[in-house]
Amino acid sequence: MVSDRIAQVERILDGIMDPEMPFLTITELGMIQGCALDEKGSVVIRLTPTYSGCPATDAIQDDIKTALKPVEPHFRIEVVHAPAWTTDWISPEAREKMRLNGIAPPEGTSVDKAFLLGKSQIVPCPRCASNDTRLVSPFGSTACKAHFQCNACAEPFDHFKCF
Amino acid sequence: MEAQEHEWILRLADDALVLAQRLSEWCSHGPALEEDIALSNIALDLLGQARAMLTLAGGREGRGRDEDALAYFRTDSEYRNALLVELPNGHFGDTITRQMLFDQFAVLRYDALANQSVDLELSAIASKALKEVRYHAAHSSQWVVRLGDGTEESHQRVQESLNVLWPYTEELFEDDAVSQACAAAGILPLNASFKEVWSSQVQSILSEATLSIPESKALLTGGRNGRHTEHLSYMLAEMQVLQRTYPGAEW
């Protein structure tokens, strides 16, 4: 059954973790743009990278191949660029998981772009929830993060940029 | 038309690739840890943009060349980047001033590509790249203001950076048969069309930075046709040595 094959692939994809944030799946991050059968009967997995240069994209493709090979002999990964990935696709549950793991999730939506344009934006501390935080550096440990520090509890933390 | 568009995509890709390689030379040499990370992150974004565009160019060309073949097995005279991005990094002020001048241009070019181009694959790559270069532009522009309007020493040094770099900016806005054909086909507007907005934005950053545009009338150009400075040859020698010595090596 066609739908069974797709469903099985989707179920496996739902279990693949992001290498940089191993508490989030690539589906929760909005990186899977759907699965479908092509004219030759292969399952096509449409994967969108987060940032153009994110090195995890290669690792994620390897992880997908490793996970699918034992169960689905005919599949291929298609890297799609449009529409461009946005943090708006990250689910509320995933944002909460980020917070619990010490990462301040993206605030608001990419449409207001306040952060992107360098305007100040309130990023609450994931540890003590204080709004009294400051940007240490607009670039952090990975392409998707900026580096903040909390003025209230002094905790340094990563902020997943609104993008 | 296909040949001209191929040429045009290589120009775009090579600007990103060569600047990425330059910026990656800062890795572990940054003036502060945060800036080291920032320059490396910017390099990574640019490298990703270059990879996507080289993959596209190689695929359409139909000669079996992938991103690696195009990056590692073209000689300096086959590279199509603007001279500005191949210049040696100099000190941090030189690097960040060059970055600001380039970022402000890249934002306009990707914006046009993302929102006006009839080439949907290219515009898809550009729409992601646009968000990235906007972020880079905010960062590099802030640094130019901080250094220009900083101490007497930082002001003087970054003014010198600007004096050296400025004559290379004109090349970004040059047009030729390739860019004219691509503009006519609706792929991207003429390079000259970006000049006015770029000039006014750069002028406003430089004013805030208390820096002045040098009086130079010199025009340094040639990169789009493969006539480069010797700096590119040395840079490529280092970048390509492994693949040229052990073709296809992987790890």
Primary descriptors:
heterodimer, A: 163 residues, alpha/beta, GMP Synthetase, Chain A, domain 3, 4-stranded mixed beta sheet, 3-stranded mixed beta sheet, B: 251 residues, Ferritin
Can you characterise this structure?
The complex is a heterodimer of chains A (163) and B (251). By secondary structure, chain A is of the alpha/beta class. Chain A is 21% helix and 21% strand. Chain A has three helices and seven strands; from the N terminus they run αββαβαββββ. In chain A, the strands form two sheets. A four-stranded mixed beta sheet of chain A has the order 4-7-6-5. The radius of gyration of chain A is 18 Å and the shape is elongated. The model of chain A has no long low-confidence stretch (mean pLDDT 89). Chain B has one domain (2-245): Up-down Bundle (Ferritin). Chain B contains ten helices and no strands. In chain B, α5 runs antiparallel to α9. The mean pLDDT of chain B is 96. Chains A and B meet through loops of A and α2 and α6 of B.
Helix/strand layout:
The complex is a heterodimer of chains A (163) and B (251).
Chain A: H1 2-13, E1 32-37, E2 43-47, H2 56-68, E3 75-79, H3 92-100, E4 103-104, E5 133-137, E6 145-150, E7 156-160
Parallel strand pairs in A: 2-3, 4-7
Antiparallel strand pairs in A: 1-2, 5-6, 6-7
Chain B: H1 2-24, H2 33-61, H3 67-72, H4 83-86, H5 92-116, H6 120-148, H7 152-165, H8 177-184, H9 195-208, H10 230-245
Helix pairs in contact in B: 1-2, 1-8, 2-6, 5-6, 5-7, 5-9
**What's the number of extended β-strand segments of chain B?**
0
The appropriate CATH architecture of the largest domain in chain A is: 2-Layer Sandwich
* Fraction of residues in β-strands of chain A: 15-25%
Helical fraction of chain B equals: 55-70%
What is the name of the CATH topology of the largest domain in chain A? GMP Synthetase, Chain A, domain 3
Give the end-to-end Cα distance of chain A, rounded to a whole number of Å.
39 Å
N- and C-termini, Cα separation of chain B: 38 Å
SS field, number of helical segments of chain B: 10
Rg measurement of chain B, Å: 18 Å
- Greatest chain-chain contact: A-B, 26 and 31 residues
> Regions of chain B with pLDDT < 50 over 5+ consecutive residues?
none
Biggest sheet statistics of chain B: none
The CATH homologous superfamily of chain B is called: Ferritin, core subunit, four-helix bundle
* Poorly predicted tracts of residues of chain A: none
Q: What is the CATH architecture assignment of chain B?
A: Up-down Bundle
CATH class of the largest domain in chain A: Alpha Beta
Largest beta-sheet characterization of chain A: 4 strands, mixed
Give average pLDDT of chain A, whole number: 89
